[in-house]
Design brief:
Blueprint (H helix, E strand, L loop, with lengths): L4 E5 L3 H13 L4 E5 L3 H9 L5 E2 L3 H5 L4 E4 L6 H8 L8 E4 L5 H10 L4 E2 L2 E3 L20 E4 L7 H13 L3 E4 L2 H33 L2 H4 L4 H9 L3 H10 L1 H23 L3 H20 L5 H8 L2
Parallel strand pairs: 1-2, 1-4, 2-3, 4-5, 5-6, 8-9
Antiparallel strand pairs: 7-8
The chain binds 1,4-dihydronicotinamide adenine dinucleotide and 3-(4-hydroxy-phenyl)pyruvic acid.
3-(4-hydroxy-phenyl)pyruvic acid binds next to loops.
Length: 301
């Protein structure tokens, strides 16, 4: 049974994409939007993002049969607690947070007795805000559900159906496992981008405008990632601290090996490593899982 009254809380990149995709792809759905920021609510009204924009959490919650929480992971507990008093007992709650164990805990504490099916659509861009979203964002992208043990399987199926209706492929995982996988595939790459762009800007005094002038190469790709939302990523690193620190330790060890190979002129070791990483990139591209920007280009042709 599909949902007919969906409330999206947090109308930024992901929330506005969920609202757009739901209205475009689920027949007869009524989408209500809510954001704590009045300017975001005003913009959402101006661009006609939802069928209705609520001015407070009670009005947002009252009629919902599905709530999709699309706020930064550090704000999930607060956003859920604000909805709790008016949320119908049979409403199902899902979210889109980039890490899951801390969100599962925060939502369970804020919404005792409610059915919660946490989710992470692994799709996005470096943009944020209500005008940045687009209806095709989730097309052919993974959405990982991390229902805590004992979650009603019918509710899990309904939420899986919702994400499939938005175009995503659905997979299920334990929250801790999700957080370790995403620490290496998403969180660590963002940390590296934030670091290298910072390093280059520290050097800028020496190199004058060369950092900008010659940034057509690899550095430019890092600047895109490093332009990602500061609040969102602060929250991700604090919430997924253990897994990120563990992956960072492994990364540092691997970096030290490459450093050593360069120092001692071990060309074969470098060549073998780069050959392996090239094969990984090619297999990702073959599976059609190259980056969100490429997908953005394709879907906006
Ligand atoms: N940006 C990305 O590429 C992806 C982000 N995510 C996750 O999606 C969530 C949202 O990220 P974005 O849409 O990129 O952020 P965003 O910054 O574009 O939007 C977040 C919105 O939440 C609102 N908000 C904050 N606290 C609130 C509260 N207590 N109640 C109501 N509204 C509140 C903000 O005013 C803002 O408009 C995050 O949890 C993030 O980890 C998941 C996949 C991809
Ligand atoms: O813009 C990019 O390259 C991303 O990696 C987007 C992204 C950011 C956070 C997520 O949890 C999922 C996807």
């Amino acid at each position: 049974m599909s949902f007919t009254r969906i409330t999206v809380v947090g109308l930024g990149l992901i929330g506005s994409s969920v609202a757009r995709a739901a209205r475009a792809r689920i027949e007869g759905v009524q989408v209500t939007g809510y954001d704590a920021d009045p300017e975001v609510r005003a913009t959402a009204r101006e661009i006609g993002l939802c069928d209705e924009i609520a001015d407070d959490a009670d009005a947002a919650a009252r009629e919902a049969d599905l709530v999709v929480l699309c706020v930064p992971v550090g704000a999930m507990g607060r956003a859920a607690a604000d909805l709790a008093p008016a949320l119908p007992a049979d409403a199902i709650v899902t979210d889109v947070g980039s890490c899951k164990a801390s969100v599962v805990e925060a939502l369970a504490a804020a919404l005792p007795g409610h059915v919660i099916v946490p989710a992470h659509p692994v799709a996005g861009t470096e943009q944020s805000g209500p005008t940045a979203g687009f209806a095709t964002l989730f097309n052919h992208r993974w959405c990982i559900l991390t229902p805590p043990e004992g979650t009603d399987p019918v509710a899990v199926d309904r939420v899986a159906g919702f994400w499939r209706a938005l175009g995503a492929e659905v997979e299920t995982m334990a929250p801790d496992h999700h957080d370790r996988v995403l620490a290496v595939t998403s969180h660590l790459p963002h940390l590296i981008a934030y670091t290298i762009v910072g390093t280059a800007s520290d050097l800028e005094e020496v190199t004058q405008s060369e950092v900008i002038k010659y940034s057509a190469g690899g550095f430019r790709d890092f600047t895109r990632i490093a332009a990602s939302d500061p609040t969102m990523w602060r929250d991700v690193f604090l919430a997924n601290r253990e897994a990120v620190l563990d992956m960072l330790q492994r990364f540092s060890e691997d970096l030290a090996l490459l450093q050593r190979a360069i120092r001692w002129g071990q060309g074969d070791a470098l060549f073998d490593h780069f050959t392996q990483t090239r094969a990984i990139r090619r297999s990702i591209v073959e599976q059609g899982q190259d980056d969100a920007r490429a997908d953005f280009g394709r879907t906006h042709e």
